[in-house]
Design brief:
Chains A, B: This is ArsR family transcriptional regulator. Chains A, B: Keywords: DNA-binding, Transcription, Transcription regulation. Chains A, B: It comes from Desulfacinum hydrothermale DSM 13146. Two copies of one chain form a homodimer. The first copy, chain A, is of the alpha+beta class. Chain A is about 65% helix and about 15% strand. Chain A has a domain of about 70 residues: Winged helix-like DNA-binding domain superfamily/Winged helix DNA-binding domain (Arc Repressor Mutant, subunit A), CATH 1.10.10. In chain A, a hairpin with a 2-residue loop joins strand 2 and strand 3. Chain A binds a DNA duplex through helix 4.
Chain lengths: ~100, ~100
DNA sequence: TTCACATATTAAAGCATTCGCATATCTTGA
DNA sequence: TCAAGATATGCGAATGCTTTAATATGTGAA
């Protein structure tokens, strides 16, 4: 019995989160962080990405509350703040993985 | 123990599907189709969208195998073909809904 | 303060998406 | 065949995203 407009707002916000997640590099980072928090250096060397580029993606995801960060000295640790995005990844990876092969 | 490259391919494909889903109108259409197949007219009048625009979005999602269609006379019925996208929607809606209010 | 390391910011070029509009195609009934 | 309803297609301007490169800032040690 709710007006459809209420849902539109939800969908708007949902789409916003999805749009950020819908990117190969950002998906890669999120998977990498599934094992626990990591520094920027660990991420950009571990995934072989330029430092500045990595920092940009991290900050983008942080601005959408998908990631959170913690500073320790000169290093900054990033971690997953919105674990629903991980569920999303598992859904969509189960999807494309299910058709091609198993891990 | 797999090379990371194998996963990159997956992520690339996953991101592609996600990018199509990550759009308010397309999310709206997908939710609308959750109840079962509907004609283009039902969709575009039900959601108050221009017909041509609706058809474009439907065809885009069909081209990515998210939707499938069936013709019956002059009408075309669209239905969800990839039910994983529905799971995705539920994840991301549970997310944004959980923080604001319940229905 | 100065150096070296870690991280963040900014600008810009190239490319893709969005969405409205006009119009084309397809289908059925008269 | 013609008209009308249902669906699809092509075009284009505005907007947004991606990515690189250069550079700035922040931190700790000497």
């Amino acid at each position: 019995m709710a007006t459809p407009d209420v849902r539109l707002e939800h969908l708007q916000k949902a789409a916003e989160v999805l749009r950020v997640v819908a990117h190969p590099v950002r998906l890669q980072i999120l998977q990498f962080l599934e094992g626990g928090e990591k520094t920027v250096t660990e991420i950009h060397t571990g995934l072989d990405l330029p430092q500045a580029y990595t920092s940009q993606q991290l900050n983008l995801m942080k601005s959408k509350d998908i990631l959170a960060s913690r500073r320790d000295g000169s290093q900054v640790f990033y971690r997953i703040a919105n674990w629903n995005v991980l569920k999303i990844i598992h859904c969509v990876c189960a999807d494309s993985a299910g058709e091609t092969a198993q891990t």
